[in-house]
Amino acid sequence: MPFCYSYCWRRPYNRGAFLNWTHTIAGVLGALFQIEVALQLVREGRSFRTVIGLVVLLIGGLIAAASFPDWHFEYLLQGEIVFQVGFAWCLIEWTYALADRLRRV
Q1: Looking at the domain assignment, is residue 67 inside a domain?
Q2: How far is Cα 86 from Cα 56, in angstroms, rounded to an integer?
Q3: Is residue 22 a part of any domain in this protein?
Q4: Which residue, of 43, 47, 67, 83, has the greatest Cβ tally within 10 A?
Q5: Helices (H), the chain
Q6: What is the pTM of this model?
């Protein structure tokens, strides 16, 4: 079996508990960092668009978090995609806020 095929198709939970927990903890810490960035944006300049971006991010996070326990709710990937769309929305709003700030100076 070629290396790429065997490496690309293996999941962290197939490689042992240590790698599974490491992967899960790294993902949760990354998500918490993204939530903090989005909350900082809402704190600095609250508009309807930034709040909607934060709400989309939180909905995706709740969907993904509900997929972790063994509740047979298997929408982790879809929740992560919605979460990342919400974070991208917040980053786009952040660039608009920075551009407005630079225009005022």
Answers
A1: yes
A2: 5
A3: no
A4: 83
A5: 3-8, 17-44, 48-66, 76-104
A6: 0.78
How many domains is the chain built from? 1
**Quick one: residue 32, left, alpha or beta (phi over 0 = left, psi -120 to 50 = alpha)?**
alpha
What's the pLDDT tens digit per position in 7-52? 555 566 667 788 878 888 998 999 999 999 999 988 887 788 889 9
DSSP state of 67: T
CA torsion sign, 76 to 82 to 62 to 57? positive
Specify the residue for token string 């490491």: 22
d(CA 12, CA 19): 6
Tokens, residue 10? 């293996």
Position 1 scores a pLDDT of: 45
Decide: residue 43, CB within 10 A, 0-12 exposed, 13-18 middle, 19+ buried: exposed
Q: How many residues does the chain have?
A: 105
